[in-house]
Amino acid sequence: MGCFSLAIYHDPTFTEVYYPYIGLLTEVEDLHSAALLVVKALKVRGINKPKIWHLEALIHEKQGRYEEAVGCLLDAKNSCQEKECFSFYGSEAKRILKKSGAAKKVEVTAAQA
Question: The CATH number of the domain where 17 resides is what?
Fold first, then answer.
């Protein structure tokens, strides 16, 4: 992960390093660092904001914060300029909403037990 940090240190405007770095931090569950990097990435001129918002949604999803995840995906979807992008973020939002519904059913069942 040090290589990613060095790349950003030497050229914080190099947008292509942010996507895999945030993805890696999310995968290894360093969610705090991933969230901080999302904030930094969104300030970089020329960054693909829908892609960053999607990564932010995945962070929220891992934390069980489904409503925030869907909000990020709606931001991504609304700023898309391509049909495929629009469809992808919409389907991701639906996937998380289904997951959210399943999580709520488990909570209700557990509360009733």
Answer: 1.25.40.10
